[in-house]
């Protein structure tokens, strides 16, 4: 067993071409499998976790995959093909070393966690107990909403691994979001049987095709006779696969939000894709699509595929860049740097060593002109329209919905005057002098300090929790100005406000914990807890089950909600216990569910 582990550790960790084929490696691997099984025989370099569990199933002799799930995880089958599966904390008992350190090593070697560290701020900081490890795993990103979710295989890799290691394997680099080709052989990847079109992956089950063949027709994927094994993939598709595979194997640590933004913006300026101090968004998108083609961009980025580009450039805003899915980060990084070595060099020099923070981008430019009277809504709307190039009514409704609604309520005939004013201003291009940021207000620091002192009392209140929105937090400190027009003149206050607002899921779990902490809550049903909290039914049930799994402290009361969340490592930006799940919209946004074929 020891010799086999050393053999695996000595293998080249970087994705590259063919390695020397040792004649004794299959025998070593077989001998290792006869010893005490930690998980399975030593991992093949670049092998994914679902592959290791699949090999364990083969060598264990379990009659069903459900038995293997019970052996390893002591629970019913679940999805092991997520970026970071949630319920793998049970493997700590089978891994050498401290549980938390062993789990971190498994994540970095057998999942896509290294890419999440680099681009989404993912961190695995857990204590050495099973409950805390499970909670941290649950909080990590699981998958890209709307992305293709099938396990992908390379027939040539399966054949080579079987010759070299005595067994085929599923590689993590083939499962990176948007990857369509093998980084070694430049051939298209398969996600289903080429003979009968049966998908390799089934929901909540292991992927056993590399060892057992197609579950429907029995075709062997490693025989090298499939069409994919002789075709060559597009040059950009192969380049993207090699780029992402090298990043996955690099072991780079995570950068700050500001460092990541500086990395992107520095290269954008070097490529001439900026105008003054702003990014030329249309030109960047145009060149990116022209370089890679519609098909690749649509496959990597579901937002582009569905024409939802309004939030595409959140990737260049410090406060939201970590929330952008990893596929878009990889696509933009590949477009800007092309070569993985060049990207990693600049990543270490700029993103990791950056000491000068990038200020948060203003939501919209502010004109340094005399501020209109608060009572004159028409002047406020016209002033706001000056910050939008080629502004029309649709743009105003999108950017200043509340302001425009108040104007119409005050004067139903105001639209005629407003359209005339917009016609005069349409086509005017804002220059650098016009959009320069105004000087900070002299009371900025005092307002920021007032908000900073007010926030703890707001979240620790014993009353039924209220949503920590921008307007509510501002009203709490006596702010009577317009947040749309005036807030850009208060940069310190804006930074404190951005950090103090909570996500919807953080608000929901505060409501649920508050309800659970009531004196008589132990006698309530889940429906009564939901009614007391006021949270939407489906989300409430998910959160009640989550709290039951975590275990509510016996000393919990209505003032200890934030202390409980802090102990559970849930911050204000929490995305919920199941960020991959899509809930139906309630209220006026509800749309009936459509079935296939409708």
TrEMBL record:
Residues 1-28 are annotated as: Disordered. This is TniQ domain-containing protein. InterPro entries: TniQ. Residues 1-23 have a biased composition (Basic and acidic residues). It holds the Pfam family TniQ. Residues 44-189 form the TniQ domain. The lineage of its organism: Bacteria, Pseudomonadati, Pseudomonadota, Betaproteobacteria, Burkholderiales. It comes from Pararobbsia silviterrae.
């Amino acid at each position: 067993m020891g010799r086999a582990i050393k053999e695996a550790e000595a293998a080249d960790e970087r994705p590259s071409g063919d390695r020397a084929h040792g004649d004794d490696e299959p025998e070593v691997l077989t001998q290792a499998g006869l010893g005490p099984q930690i998980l399975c025989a030593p991992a093949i370099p670049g092998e994914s976790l679902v592959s290791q569990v699949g090999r364990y199933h083969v060598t264990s002799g379990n009659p069903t995959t459900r038995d293997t799930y019970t052996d390893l995880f002591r629970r019913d089958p679940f999805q092991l093909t997520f970026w970071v599966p949630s319920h793998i904390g049970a493997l700590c008992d089978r891994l050498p070393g401290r549980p938390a350190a062993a789990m971190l090593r498994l994540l970095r070697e057998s999942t896509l966690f290294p890419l999440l560290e680099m681009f989404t701020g993912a961190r695995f900081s857990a204590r050495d107990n099973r409950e805390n490890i499970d909670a941290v795993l649950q909080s990590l990103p699981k998958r890209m909403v709307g992305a293709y979710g099938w396990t992908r295989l390379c027939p040539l890799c399966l054949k080579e691994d079987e010759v070299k290691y005595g067994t085929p394997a599923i590689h993590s680099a083939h499962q990176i979001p948007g990857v369509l080709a093998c980084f070694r052989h430049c051939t298209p990847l398969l996600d289903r049987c080429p003979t009968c079109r049966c998908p390799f992956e089934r929901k909540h089950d292991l992927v056993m095709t590399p060892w057992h063949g197609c579950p429907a027709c029995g075709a062997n994927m490693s025989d090298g006779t499939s069409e994919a094994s002789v075709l060559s993939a597009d040059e950009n598709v192969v380049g993207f696969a090699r780029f992402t595979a090298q990043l996955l194997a690099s072991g780079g640590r995570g950068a700050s939000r500001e460092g990541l933004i500086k990395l992107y913006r520095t290269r954008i300026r070097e490529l001439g894709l900026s105008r003054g101090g702003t990014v030329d968004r249309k030109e960047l998108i145009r060149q990116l699509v022209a370089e890679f083609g519609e098909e690749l961009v649509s496959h990597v980025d579901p937002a582009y595929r569905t024409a939802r580009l309004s939030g595409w450039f959140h990737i260049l805003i410090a406060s939201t860049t970590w929330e952008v899915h990893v596929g878009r980060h990889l696509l933009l990084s590949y477009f800007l740097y092309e070569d993985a070595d060049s990207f990693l060099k600049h990543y270490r020099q700029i993103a990791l060593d950056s000491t000068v923070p990038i200020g948060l981008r203003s939501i919209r430019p502010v004109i340094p002109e005399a501020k209109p009277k608060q009572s004159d809504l028409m002047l406020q709307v016209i002033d706001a329209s000056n910050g939008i190039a080629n502004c029309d009514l649709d743009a105003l409704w999108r950017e200043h919905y509340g302001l425009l609604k108040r104007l119409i309520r005050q004067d139903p005939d105001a639209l005629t005057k407003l359209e005339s004013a917009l016609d005069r201003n349409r086509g005017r291009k804002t220059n650098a002098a016009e959009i320069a940021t105004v000087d900070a207000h002299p009371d900025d620091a005092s307002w920021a300090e007032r908000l900073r002192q007010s926030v703890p009392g707001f979240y620790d209140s014993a009353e039924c929790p209220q949503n920590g929105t921008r307007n509510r937090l501002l009203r709490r400190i006596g702010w009577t100005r317009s947040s749309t027009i005036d807030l850009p003149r208060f940069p310190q206050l804006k930074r404190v406000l951005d950090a103090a607002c909570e996500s919807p899921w953080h608000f929901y779990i505060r409501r649920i914990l508050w309800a659970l902490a009531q004196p008589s809550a132990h006698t309530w049903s889940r429906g009564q807890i939901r009614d007391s909290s006021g949270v939407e039914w489906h989300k409430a049930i998910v959160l009640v089950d989550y709290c039951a799994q975590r275990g509510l402290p016996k000393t919990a009361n209505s003032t200890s909600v934030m202390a409980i969340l802090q102990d559970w490592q849930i911050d204000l930006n929490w995305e919920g216990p199941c960020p991959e799940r899509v809930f139906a919209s309630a209220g006026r946004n509800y749309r009936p569910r459509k079935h296939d074929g409708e």
